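To illustrate the input format used throughout this study, we show a single complete record. The first block contains the structure-token representation of the backbone; no residue identities are included at this stage. The design step must infer an amino acid for every position from geometry alone.
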């Protein structure tokens, strides 16, 4: 997967608060990379296969781009092998 383009993603900069927990439902092996805002959190679909953490890395990169922060500022807190994950924006 190439680097996600900002113009293809929603603006989630309002969620980029240090210490903010962001619940995410992930759909790997999707047809298209997308981020959808739902009432329960975010739904992120990635075209990457879920092996060796590749899908998690793709989700983290997309989420960081949509938040407008560096990927190093976003960490996976819970759900490394599950579809429901919890990401946190790190305190700078």
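Output of the design step:
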């Amino acid at each position: 997967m190439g680097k996600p383009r900002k113009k293809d993603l929603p603006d989630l900069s309002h969620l980029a608060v240090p210490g903010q927990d962001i619940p995410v439902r992930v759909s790997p092996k999707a047809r298209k990379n997308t981020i959808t805002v739902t009432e329960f959190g975010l739904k992120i679909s990635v075209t990457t296969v879920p092996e060796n953490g590749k899908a998690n890395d793709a989700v983290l990169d997309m989420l960081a781009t949509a938040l407008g922060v560096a990927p190093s500022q976003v960490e996976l807190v819970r759900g490394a092998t599950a579809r429901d994950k919890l990401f946190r924006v790190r305190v700078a």
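Structural context for interpreting the output: DSSP finds one helix and five strands in the chain. The mean pLDDT is 90.
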